[in-house]
């Protein structure tokens, strides 16, 4: 009997062992850690946590002290030394960890709560605060900051995959600073636990480990609010051809900024140009081809009509700017726009009364809008110089127009929900071409 049991035991181990090693490999392929640089060059910071926490020397990993939940610490860096609640400490770099890291609790830095652990590194210029966190937990906070939590599940999932891919692509951006990603728009905005939302967390969990690859590498996955009808080819926005950033039709008509308008006076244009180093004098004309249907546009526009260059002609100087420069200077929502000059008519006219007298009467006609203004060439839009004249910018979309349009993703997801015929992968394959969607952990 004993031998029989032994054989059964051995057989069990032989069968079970490959399964366990397979399981451990799977287990290891969980969300990787990322290091997020929260603050740099700090001379003082407040630290706390809503669960018991420890302070440790992050070079030796020795615990400096344990603290109860909600104890507040004040860490100062002065004269090349760290001080903890006014007492100097020997450590150069310190770590802060929750005693039970699995708990759904956070470490507070400067009154903001974060998951994961913290590292405070002292450098000549001050302290750098780094949050070490699982990539997917980082996304819990990032995704709802990029897309409203009330939007359809498949749109949120597409956003989660785009944000995850964008983070993995950007991992080396801050190598020299000692962390992976910063917490601002330079990388992706990350403000910790407070920003987390239920549906976004669900979308991150439902797509855990799923990324977009090209040649087996995470793609550069930009996204924007709304394209205004067509997304853009990468080379038309910043000169570099990327096979996965191609212009596609974008069903974003429900977006609030699908169409926008901004009226600016010639004087304001002169002032704003002068403020960025282009004193052109009195604005005489603007050179820009008319916005036409996609595929029919002129040399100063991309195929979808976004502006490559336009010129402002003054009585002292002419300045030629890129579409992106114009967008920044005048705070425009996109570079896909046209302009028209709106010239008010006289509000009063003299009416002859008999042979010798005149009477001034008020008139109330609509302003005169010059639609096909052709002078030297059809691209020259002249300023008339009348009081009250305005230049009306009429545009489409909000953002650079590269990659996924969030309002377009919303529209696609809503259609899928009604017709039950698609998911977040269809959204991603629409906005990012020639990609592979793969679960990597
Ligand atoms: Zn950054």
What ligands are attached or bound here?
zinc ion
**Overall pLDDT confidence:** 88
How far the N terminus sits from the C terminus, by CA atoms, comes to 45 Å
Q: Can you summarize the main beta sheet? A: 7 strands, mixed
Share of β-strand residues: 25-35%
Read across the widest sheet, the strand sequence of neighbours is: 4-3-8-11-12-1-13
Helix content: 10-25%
Low-confidence stretches: 6-28
Total strands: the figure is 28
Name the assembly state: single chain
How would you describe what is shown here?
- This protein is of the alpha+beta class.
- It has a domain at 259-396.
- Helices cover 25% and strands 31% of the residues.
- The protein has helices at residues 2-28, 135-146, 153-169, 198-206, 234-238, 266-275, 323-329, 406-419, 424-431; strands spanning 33-42, 44-49, 53-57, 63-67, 73-78, 81-84, 87-89, 93-98, 107-109, 112-114, 117-123, 126-134, 181-182, 210-214, 217-218, 223-224, 259-264, 283-287, 309-314, 318-322, 337-343, 348-353, 357-362, 368-370, 380-382, 390-396, 404-405, 436-439.
- A seven-stranded mixed beta sheet has the order 4-3-8-11-12-1-13. A six-stranded antiparallel beta sheet has the order 7-6-5-2-9-10, with no helix packed on it. The chain has a four-stranded antiparallel beta sheet with strand order 17-26-21-24.
- A hairpin with a 2-residue loop joins strand 9 and strand 10.
- Helix 2 (135-146) crosses helix 4 (198-206), helix 3 crosses helix 4 (198-206) and helix 3 crosses helix 8.
- Bound molecules: zinc ion (ZN).
- Residues 173-174, 181-182, 186-187 line the site of zinc ion.
- Zinc ion binds at residues 173-174, 181-182, 186-187.
